[in-house]
Amino acid sequence: MTTPVWFITAASSGFGREIALQALQRGHTVVATARNADRIAHLRDAGAHTLALDVTADPATLKAVADDVIARFGRVDYLINAAGYILDAAIEEATPKEIFDAFNTNVFGAEPGPPSSPSAAWAAGSAAPPTASTP
Asked: Which entry of 34, 94, 98, 132 is 20 to 30 Å from 45 by CA?
């Protein structure tokens, strides 16, 4: 039996961190990402493969990451997009940048996208369909 491969965004805290820890405890392969790789050093120390990744990066960057992960691990069984942006203000009180950042992370960062997108790269090497979930 092959070891499941997880790709988890926003693994520095919350659901992403907990899912990564649970998968590692079960002996699974985990690729954990966060905007700041220093914030997931504890996961690297626990056995995860870690990298800095912003889910709002341009599509070419995201696809390159997906291609690299598939090349290295052969597949991704579980794609967990735990990235989310909470706008802590009423919409009329928020700045345009705050609104843009929330929308960009919560909508475009959840990316299922076109055939050339990262999700297509995941699915091409995956035993199971990708799972994207923004909390």
From this structure: 132
Going by C-beta distance under 8 Å and a sequence separation of 6 or more, which residues neighbour residue 105? 55, 56, 83, 84, 85, 134
* Predicted confidence (pLDDT) per residue in 45-98, tens digit: 999 999 999 888 888 888 889 889 989 998 888 888 888 888 888 889 999 988
Answer positive or negative: Cα dihedral of 57, 111, 21, 4.
Answer: negative
- C-alpha distance from residue 15 to each of 19, 70, 74 (Å): 6, 23, 25
Q: Give the number of C-alpha atoms closer than 13 A to the C-alpha of residue 99, restricted to the C-beta side.
A: 7
Alpha-helical segments (H) within the chain: 14-25, 41-45, 59-73, 96-106, 118-124
What's the CATH superfamily of 5-124?
NAD(P)-binding Rossmann-like Domain (3.40.50.720)
What is this structure's pTM?
Answer: 0.80
CA dist 83 and 54 (Å) reads 9
